[in-house]
Known about the structure:
The complex is a heterodimer. Chain A is mainly alpha-helical. The longest helix of chain A has 23 residues, at 311-333. Chain A is 68% helix and 1% strand. Chain B is mostly helical. Chain B contains 15 helices and seven strands. Chain B has a domain at 14-237 and 348-391: Glycosyltransferase (Alpha/alpha barrel). Classes of the chains: A mainly alpha, B mainly alpha. At the A-B interface, strand 1, helix 2, helix 4, helix 6 and helix 8 of A face helix 1, strand 1, helix 2, helix 3 and helix 4 of B. Strand 1 (40-41) of chain A pairs parallel with strand 1 of chain B. Chain B: One of its GO terms (molecular function) is CAAX-protein geranylgeranyltransferase activity.
Amino acid sequence: MGDSSDDEYLGTEWIPYSERAEWADIAPLAQDDGPNPVVSIAYSQKFREVFDFMRAIIAKGEKSQRALDLTTDALRLNPANYTVWQYRRDILRELKADLNVELDYLSEVIGQNSKNYQVWHHRRVIVEMLDDASNELELTENALINDGDAKNYHAWQHRQWAIRTFNLYDSELSFVDRLIGEDQRNNSAWNQRFFVIKHLGFNPNLVDQELIYAMNRIRIIKNNESAWNYLVGVIRQSPYGNGLLNNHPAVVEFAEELYQAGNRSPYLMAFLIDLYQEQTMQNECSDREQKARKVYDICDDMASKHDVIRRKYWQYVANHLKDQLNKSSEKANQ
Amino acid sequence: MSYHIDMEDNSTEPEPVLLSKHAKNLLRFLNMLPARMASHDNTRSTIVFFAVCGLDVLNSLNLVPPKMRQDIIDWIYGGLVVPRDNEKRCGGFMGCRAMVPLTENSEVLECMRKYQWGHLAMTYTSIAVLVTLGDDLSRLDRKSIVDGVAAVQRPEGSFSACIDGSEDDMRFVYCAATICHMLDYWGDVDKEAMFQFIEKSLRYDYGFSQELEGEAHGGTTFCALAALQLSGQLDRLHAATLERIKRWLIFRQVDGFQGRPNKPVDTCYSFWIGASLCILNGFELTDYAKNREYILSTQDTLVGGFAKWPQATPDPFHTYLGLCGLAFTGEPGLSAVMPSLNMSMAAYVHLQHLHEVWRSKSNEGKEDHDLTLSSAVQQLKLVEDGEAKATTATTSTSPLISAQ
């Protein structure tokens, strides 16, 4: 829960609304918190006054330049007040205001409140009203790169929305590649990569290209869940290979080589467990027991050595396979 | 006081949960919040929720004096918005009073109505607080509220928070499901569209995103799974899919839990991920000791409360969710938590009792299925036990809670 430190925005030369000549016609309207309120906030004098005037203006239905300025003050004090944001939009519509000015204002506000839902929503509505998303890639790039949080959920969500709505896919893959290059563990960037690739369509060449991309990244950092999830995700979602790990021999070979070279990353091990489990269930062949044995052995290794925190889970995975095999052999004997 | 296990002197034991300090910490928030929390003005009812439900999980609701209990209930009901027939369907609870003017002037009051809307998250937390305090919800017009929920459903199945000016995403899908489940009435809510939206938000790594192709996230995965369970649609996902979701969740454990791959651990995910795994009957596959150890590393031993990270400032959100996370591991002194509604099992039992009463009333009412009328009938008849739930058992055979 963050603090609202309004002074840094409002400066020290604050003139109360009650002392402003241009507001003399407005009688402030206090908040009715009921006779015995709970979770009362000890509002600052400034907060109380600004919202008293805000209520008075809303009650009056006044949609003017000074009302717009008042919402600016109110939203600096509490950027989470969604009703004031809505009233601000009502004013902008009424005044037929220059929405590019609003975008500039918002870029500043988002810079200060990059994890606030309401500011991003307001941005989205204004962009829709303008029907122009030409600033959105730069805005979100700033939030993700210059502001230092490359995993900011709001910024990615807004970026995806703008790309999807205004068909801005063209240079997204290179942007994503740059972010993955800067931090290979940036799961948000991997997710964005999936979003773009899915839009381009899973043709065989693209799928192979993406599998190679992920394998190359894993070669650099083997213990990276994001890259492994991407690798497996592409295999499972693409129509080529029926979503089966086993139908991608290059990946199978890659994983088995890593294992033979002594790597015991839990994500590699999980991949092998899934692979051998898949082979066990798919195969009608005679080495079924042998394949299942491999699953049990790796699960044991995980539980006892490489992924002890998930020991109960890996035992569960092994037992789950045993159950499935028992069921299918019962069926076969019937 | 029996819950003072934190005072026991036993150095071989693991670090104790400072139950009474947490209770006092939460109690403070019910009174007065400092000016620096003014940016939480719009979500005051969520703070009531964390404090009241937290005290409940601590078995310490007795620390809330009867008058204050009544004040809380009255304040919550004071945020109820009941639209007239000619108004937008904006029924539900407001989480604050920012749009309620102190005036006798009926014209002013009338004008402000245009900007008074129920908000799904505030409606959910308000009803949960009422249930937790043993209220019988008889002052609610259930149809009006569920009409408000249906009115904010988007064609693609998602929900906004309120009738105007809100984004729509998985958080409000969850809130919609909790409200309808708690009121035992789904009205015009389109469960099928809701399911489609949730299913579309399942990502390639088998976590759920906030919307569509966003990144999978622990909080939104909880919202998605709980909404599916509360709407009776969890079994529409294939068994293999559920296993993969379970894998994604299990992989979030580092010591405590993280919300996304390669992100730092945070106390609140002991709830979001823990509750998700409870819903999938997989919580017992986690490492309880490591989870507990992390949560306790974020405990403020001086003023009580939990923070997201060790040495960080505690807050009601992390305090409540930390307590729930501990409750899933069977921590002594804490009562059981109903994962998908995120309230105590005792409160849930009280809610189930209300459902039974409503159902028998509506059966008695012959062909009368008008909820508005039946709630008026309840208002007359059910003035009885506000304290009923305090005596109800804390265990349940409900399929909604997994064995722990």
